[in-house]
Design brief:
Arc Repressor Mutant, subunit A, three-stranded antiparallel β-sheet
Length: 87
């Protein structure tokens, strides 16, 4: 366990969820609600998704803010090559 990176472990957990559902895209909010028992804060999900994005698995797209109120949850898209491999 020495040297284990909790962010990488979290990214693996999120990736397992994505693969099980073969999700082509989803919102950060959907991921948080689905994995709430594992991740107590949205920031933990965002850190895991950032690690997946750095490694080329997903692309996190911030939603533009159209008006007053809270901005929409960012959308996450799985790379096309990976989605095609699921078929």
């Amino acid at each position: 366990m020495m040297g284990a990176d909790p962010t990488i472990a979290a990214a693996r957990h999120v990736w397992d969820w994505i693969e099980r559902g073969r999700l082509p895209s989803f919102s950060v909010r959907e991921a948080f609600n689905a994995l709430r028992g594992t991740f107590p804060r949205v920031q933990h999900i965002r850190d895991a998704l950032e690690a997946l994005e750095e490694r080329g698995y997903v692309e996190v797209m911030e939603s533009p803010r159209d008006g007053p109120g809270r901005p929409a949850s960012p959308t996450v898209r799985v790379r096309q090559e990976i989605r095609e491999g699921w078929r």
